[in-house]
Design goal:
single chain; 502 residues; Immunoglobulin-like; seven-stranded mixed β-sheet
Length: 502
């Protein structure tokens, strides 16, 4: 398929967005005239039960591989009571269906761009995919085309898939193009951790609506997109009915620009057991933790301590430089409704994580994340697909210093392909819950974070960027190339519909 230019991509995206992409002042005027207020209709808190996205079944399987199919399309769904909202969803739902896989078993997922009317690119965030299946920002699938993505499933972790189209990632994800992808291995499944219905994904997002239910997308002059309604798994401020047992929660921040500082309303501990790339070496108890965009944390809440009838709210204590609307201090509520036995336990050792000594690093690189002359830049530069800003060789260990010299915003930095270990933040040890393998690093206001990683297992070009996707779109992203002669991210073109059966 012929590659389209960045200008063409922007034009297509603007046409697709329609009134969603009105200038900010006009959008506010239009919203005020429609809604009579700048705020969303506010549903009753904790009135809706927490939905769990369906697990997607493969269309067929063979000895090594499961084959899946998802169609990106528009749909009208009920989010706020009495209203319908147009979303762009994988299989027409938001969040999209969950894919569950086993370590080492391969996946082929056909993503069909059927009726979204905008170019798309699918990134399986956290997977060590080959470059042509990594969701490179300019590897676009146009409306009426599909692409088959190959995923090796080499990491047991909580991953997620989402749109990654250049200059339109924020809008496309905001409209619903995101979903959870879980990989488990026999070792993890053999641990006595909570399983089955006691292992629950929580995808947190914030949205804003007109009084007719339409999503409002406004980047405030290409700065950030904030909402005044908190959704968990697509439902506003839901409640979850639980028993007197331990529950494992896989928490993902799927917001565009909002970070969270999560805590329980009764002051009890979270028992942290996992980071972006899977289980930590040992559990850690914390009262609260920061959750930047695209970060995933796995934790245990022990409801066996509470009598039936107890209610515990998952709170957001707030962080600097978020636009905090009323109500964003609450996420969801847990209602203890039944007494039941609990056969689960939390081992003192969860997994062996091999340290990467600083002495093994062959070089250190620095990346500065700034706003300059109205542009979001890395080392003073915007995105250029012809420029490579780092060229580690296959197997090289490098230290990257991620530096944010601003007091006005933070940047969650995502490095594709590899998992890294955080060495320090401003020269101090990372927070206890961050001491695992990660691919997103919360670089706070005036913070310097050092991370260490081994580059592989693939060669080729990969991206690194801020996961405030408004910053990413305008144009805070760059690329590195591992080794020499690796495959191009654009070497496996999308194919035109109608799609033959998998």
């Amino acid at each position: 398929m012929k590659k389209i230019t960045r200008r063409e991509a922007l034009k297509l995206g603007t046409l697709a967005g329609g009134s969603l992409l009105l200038p900010t002042t006009l959008l506010y005027r239009n919203q005020a005239s429609i809604a009579g207020t700048a705020g969303s209709p506010q549903p009753t808190r904790f009135a809706v039960k927490l939905p769990i996205p369906p697990v997607l079944n493969p269309v067929r399987s063979d000895a090594t591989t499961d084959y899946y199919e998802m169609t990106m399309k528009k749909a009208r769904i009920s989010i706020l009571p009495g209203l319908t909202t147009e979303i762009w969803g994988y299989n027409g739902i938001a969040p999209g269906p969950t894919i569950k896989q086993r370590l080492g078993r391969k996946s082929v997922v056909r993503f069909i761009n059927n009726s979204v009317n905008t170019p798309t690119s699918v990134h399986l965030h956290g997977m060590a995919s080959l470059p042509q299946y990594d969701g490179y920002a300019e590897d676009l699938t146009l409306p009426g085309y599909y692409k088959d993505y190959f995923f090796p499933n080499t990491r047991a972790a909580t991953l997620w898939y989402h749109d990654h189209a250049i200059h339109n990632t924020a809008r496309n994800v905001y409209m619903g193009l995101a979903g959870t992808y879980l990989v488990q291995d026999e070792f993890e499944l053999g641990l006595p951790l909570p399983k089955g219905q006691y292992d629950v994904p929580l995808l947190i997002q914030d949205k804003q609506f007109t009084n007719t239910g339409k999503l409002v997308f406004d980047t405030q002059g290409e700065k950030s997109q904030y909402g005044d309604v908190i959704l968990v798994n697509g439902a506003p401020w839901p409640r979850m009915e639980v028993g007197t047992s331990k529950y494992r929660f896989r928490i993902l921040n799927g917001s565009i620009s909002r970070s969270y500082k999560l805590a329980l309303s009764n002051g009890d501990d979270f028992i942290m057991i996992g980071t972006d790339a899977g289980l930590m070496s040992a559990p850690v108890n914390v009262k609260n933790f920061r959750l930047g965009m695209a970060e995933r944390y796995e934790l245990i809440i022990d409801f066996s301590k509470y009598p039936v009838g107890s209610q515990v709210v998952l709170q957001n204590l707030g962080l600097p430089n978020n636009d905090d609307y009323d109500g964003t201090d609450q996420i969801m509520r847990f209602d203890v409704v039944r007494s039941e036995p609990d056969n689960s336990s939390i081992p003192a050792t969860l997994r062996t994580i091999q340290p990467i000594p600083e002495s093994s690093a062959v070089r250190t690189r620095e990346f500065r994340y700034e706003r300059s002359n109205g542009l979001w830049v890395i080392n003073g530069k915007v995105w250029d697909d012809k420029r490579v800003d780092a060229n580690p060789q296959l197997g090289d260990v490098e230290i990257w210093r991620l530096y944010n010299n601003s007091g006005g915003w933070f940047h969650p930095i995502h490095i594709h392909l590899i998992d890294c270990i955080m060495l320090d933040r401003n020269g101090k040890p990372p927070f206890p819950y961050e001491r695992g393998l990660k691919d997103v690093f919360y670089v706070g206001e005036n913070e310097s974070v050092r991370v260490i990683g081994r580059y592989g297992p693939n060669t080729g070009k990969y991206m690194s960027h801020c996961h405030n996707t408004v910053h990413e779109d305008h144009d805070m992203m760059n690329q590195f190339e591992v080794g020499q002669g690796g495959p191009s991210p654009l070497s496996d073109p999308a194919k035109i519909l109608p799609a033959p059966s998998l």
